[in-house]
Every structure is written in C-alpha cells, then in structure tokens.
Amino acid sequence: MSQQKPKKTDETVLLLGRSLFSNDIDSLLNTIKQKIIRPKETLVVYTPNPEQIVLAQKDNKFSQVLNKGDILIPDGVGVVLASKILSLWHNKPAVKTRIAGVDLVKKLLGLAGENNWKVLLLGGKGYDKGLHHVWNSGIAKETKLSLIWESGYEDISQPSKEEESDIQSLIKKTKPDVVFVAFGAPWQELWLDEHRELLSNSGVKLGMAVGGSFDMLFGKIKRAPLFMRAMGLEWLYRLIQEPWRWRRQLQLFVFMGLVLREIIKPKTK
Fold it and tell me: For residues 101 and 223, which has the higher predicted lDDT (pLDDT)?
C-alpha cells in the first residue's frame, strides 16, 4: 500500500508526516463553516496528539487514515512544542497554538444549536445520565440543539453484524448533521474512514473523532483549571484523575525520540 501523502495548505504545518491546522480556534471554526455550507461529502476532523502520532508510525493503516482526514487539529501541547523545536532547527513555520478537542466540540455544539442541527454522539458509557450537563453548562442553553447519544458497540474492536446494522439504520433514520465519534484512537478514526460514504449519503455535514471530550462535557471527568491549561499541564490533571493512563504517557518518550530523529536528519533546502 502506498503511503497517503499529507495535505499541505496555507492553513497547515507539516509535522512528522502530518499536516496540522495552524491557527487559532476561531479561524478553525470559520474554516469549518466555509467547508460545510454546501458539502458534497462529509468533512472529517481528527485530533492527533503525541500518542496517536507514535501509533501512526507503527500502524500503516492508521497512518493512512489520519492523512485522509480533511482537518487535523493539534490536540496536545507536546505536538505544539515539537513543532516549535523543529521549526527553529529547520527554519520552517511552526504550529501556532494547541486546539483542544473539547474546546472545538463546544464551539461546534454552539454552532449546531444556532442552526438547529441534529448531533449524534457515538461511543462512551453512561452518557444518558449526563446529557443535562451540556444544557446546564450553557453550551446548548436557549438553542435548538438536538443531541442524540448511542453507545454503538459492546467491543469496537469486534463489532457484530447486528450492531453495525443498528448503527447504519440509526444514521439513515435520524440523518444527523454532525456525528461525533468517541471510540478512542485508533477505532474512532478507522470508523469514520470506513463509514464516510454512509455519512455523506445520509447528509452528515461533519464527522469528528472526539476521544474523551464528552467525558468532560458530561461531567464524568473534571477539566483542568485554566492556569494548568495555560501551562500545558492539562494532561497531568487528567492523569491524576485517571492514574491508569500512566502507561499511555510512556509514549511521550517515543514521541520525543521521533522529534530527535527528525532533528538529526540532514536539513533539506
């Protein structure tokens, strides 16, 4: 299989084989608005962080899928720092700022409410008891947002034919405008890629991999205080709440190795 080449545009910066959006979140929202005014097919957004970039180096299929995403946002302070380091070394543009997936989801929920869009959330557990958090938080308050949640699959790595049929029927019946997928990487990205035709044929404007964003929006996990976010320590705050994630944090060392390898490569003109 030939490697899918990253898409370089005026709004993106290349980093370790990925074309990442490089502007603030309001510019990103405007870009998304422009792309979904009269969509011919579903716009797909991924949120790569250092862990996912490492996974993509090992998994060619996942690498291909990431590069087929229409927009990749830098969801991870490590991604931004790596970009700035490499930009100094190679004298190339750097990613300007981190865009947290949860912040983009909030913006998109607001946009959906303003336009009376249906939003389908696939994945996650226990969200039926937390939907009121979205309204109480002001994200959807006094709007016409229609939010539907469906857990989707018992085991996303081994979906049954019945589960797959139920999901397809749900999408065809409800015809959501936005679909957020919370299966965790790489499953959420693979699912979006494999179901692009279904989403486009059902009139879905936007599909986005959201990871654990709804855990925060629904109040299952507390988000880091603003000062910790500003210091780039949101990952640490989440690790304190979910200590089992420490093994995943080890991938940061592998990511650092990838950055170092990029530094020692001969500079290209």
Answer: 101
